[in-house]
């Protein structure tokens, strides 16, 4: 009986950890949440997060030989603060209320289906942000609409590729290419020249800021494996953005980058 219960708790922890990682949670958040779950069931646990997978072991405090381990792979999807908040609330409900293991698993599955902002609203928001940054970084008012259009189409490209599960590192290449090429081409057609402010700011929505922040947080708290894996992922995305921009400015013949 204890063995079956421990196995179910281990499964809960795995599913919970996968859900948190998939929407951008850092390791400290995961560890504190798993502490609440393990406290509820009077268990100890070990957690290991690698570049592509999660490994968790659980055992009873008074019986270290009862250790049960499980592992699974995970995939980062996109930032979802609402989902992170719901998962955090769930761990407090587990600790303070009488919830069965099956109910916990069902609630995790329900939380995974949490709706996100509409793709159109997301695209409009990031496009406005990129247009604003264009002006803040030294661009002209007349250049802001071109940045907006490029960022909007680039974001739509990213959403489309993500929906069809295109490789995580190919997506920023194509998205950056579409954003910078469209913005640069329209600007060139209207004014006969390309602005470096437009090209550099229309792709800012692709910058993996959350990955870099969570990697830094993990490093400060001693989770070096997780920190390195997140930094490598962020570096891959940044490289993809650079490749996409290089392709577009080469086709457009833009040489005045500096």
TrEMBL record:
Localization terms from the record: Cell membrane
- A Gene Ontology molecular-function term? transmembrane transporter activity
GO biological-process terms attached to the record = succinate transport
Every Threonine/serine exporter-like N-terminal domain range: 12-251
Q: Taking the first listed entry, what is the main subcellular location of this protein, grouped into a coarse class?
A: membrane
Membrane topology, from the record? Multi-pass membrane protein
| Keyword tRNA processing attached | no
Give the record's keywords alphabetically: Cell membrane, Membrane, Transmembrane, Transmembrane helix
Give the record's GO CC terms: plasma membrane
Q: Where are the transmembrane segments?
A: 117-138, 173-191, 197-220, 232-254
Q: Which PANTHER family match?
A: SUCCINATE TRANSPORTER SUBUNIT YJJP-RELATED, UPF0442 PROTEIN YJJB-RELATED
Which family does the UniProt entry place this protein in?
Belongs to the ThrE exporter (TC 2.A.79) family.
> What is the designated name of this protein?
Uncharacterized membrane protein YjjP (DUF1212 family)
* Organism per entry: Aureibacter tunicatorum
Q: What is the lineage of its organism?
A: Bacteria, Pseudomonadati, Bacteroidota, Cytophagia, Cytophagales
């Amino acid at each position: 009986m204890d063995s079956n219960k421990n196995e179910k708790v281990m499964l809960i922890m795995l599913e919970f950890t996968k859900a948190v990682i998939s929407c951008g949670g850092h390791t400290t958040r995961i560890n504190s949440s798993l502490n609440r779950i393990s406290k509820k069931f009077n268990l100890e646990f070990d957690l290991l997060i690698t570049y592509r997978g999660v490994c968790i072991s659980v055992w009873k405090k008074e019986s270290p030989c009862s250790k049960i381990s499980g592992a699974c792979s995970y995939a980062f999807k996109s930032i979802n603060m609402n989902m992170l908040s719901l998962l955090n609330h769930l761990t407090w409900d587990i600790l303070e209320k009488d919830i069965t293991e099956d109910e916990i698993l069902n609630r995790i599955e329900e939380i995974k289906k949490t709706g996100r902002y509409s793709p159109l609203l997301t695209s409009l928001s990031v496009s406005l942000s990129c247009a604003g940054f264009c002006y803040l970084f030294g661009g002209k008012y007349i250049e802001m609409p071109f940045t907006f259009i490029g960022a909007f189409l680039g974001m739509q490209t990213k959403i489309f590729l993500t929906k069809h599960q295109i490789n995580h590192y190919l997506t920023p290449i194509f998205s950056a290419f579409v954003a910078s090429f469209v913005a640069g081409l329209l600007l060139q057609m209207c004014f006969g020249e390309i602005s470096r402010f437009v090209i550099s700011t229309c792709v800012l929505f692709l910058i993996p800021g959350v990955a870099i922040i969570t990697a830094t947080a993990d490093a400060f708290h001693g989770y070096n494996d997780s920190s390195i894996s997140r930094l490598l992922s962020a570096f891959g995305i940044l490289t993809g953005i650079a490749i996409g921009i290089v392709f577009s400015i080469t086709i457009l013949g833009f040489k005045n980058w500096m």
